[in-house]
Structure formats: structure tokens, C-alpha cells
């Protein structure tokens, strides 16, 4: 996943990401290199915090969502806010039902 020194294939401005992973998602995330400058810290046996640099906001959102309820983005704040809106919009789509 690390390409050209930062997480993400789409190259935008580089920014720092902080995320937490829980349970089996934490184990999975700990076994991989997401960016060469990543820092991993186990908060307890089931919770891992990762800090690293990335260059694609869209890919970070998709990456976090791929872990479902096993991951939570902590920062950057504006990306967390965008992710919350995406989740709310997705929830609204499902509330409408299938036509």
C-alpha cells in the first residue's frame, strides 16, 4: 500500500493520519506496513493506535471503512468530519429502502 513513501496511490498534499483499530482488525493492521514512517502503539491487548503520513483523503476514508466497526479515524479532524457525513449519507440511503 505504501507508494512513493506515503499511504495512497492518489497523490495530494501529505497529511498525518491517526487511527485506532480493535480486535482482529488491530491484529491485521499491526502486521502490515501502511507507510514507512508509521508508529504503532498498543493501548491494551485489543486496541492499536497507528500514526502515519498519507497523501489521499479518499483512500484513507475507504481504508477506514473497509474495517467496518473495527477501526476509527481520529485525525485529521476535517477528514473525520467528512467521514461522519459520508456515514450519515450512507445511513440515509439505507433508511429509504430498496425501490
Q: Given the helix and strand composition, which structural class is it?
A: alpha+beta
* Overall number of strands: 6
The overall pLDDT, averaged over residues, is 88
Can you list the strand order of the major beta sheet? Answer: 4-5-3-6
Number of helices: 3
Beta-strand content: 25-35%
The biggest beta sheet is recorded as:
4 strands, antiparallel
- The helix content is 25-40%
Spans with pLDDT under 50 lasting ≥5 residues? none
Termini distance?
37 Å
Shape: globular
The helix-strand sequence is EEEHEEHEH
What integer value in Å does the Rg equal? 14 Å
Based on the model shown, name its key terms:
four-stranded antiparallel sheet, alpha+beta, 99 residues, 3 helices, two-stranded antiparallel sheet
In terms of topology, how is this protein built?
Blueprint: E1 2-3, E2 6-7, E3 15-22, H1 24-30, E4 39-44, E5 47-54, H2 57-66, E6 71-75, H3 77-95
Antiparallel strand pairs: 1-2, 3-5, 3-6, 4-5
Summarize this entry quickly:
By secondary structure, this protein is of the alpha+beta class. 36% of the residues lie in helices and 31% in strands.
What does this structure look like?
- By secondary structure, this protein is an alpha+beta fold.
- The protein is 36% helix and 31% strand.
- The chain has three helices and six strands, in the order E-E-E-H-E-E-H-E-H.
- The strands form two sheets. Strands 4-5-3-6 form a four-stranded antiparallel beta sheet. Strands 1-2 form a two-stranded antiparallel sheet.
- The N and C termini lie far apart (37 Å).
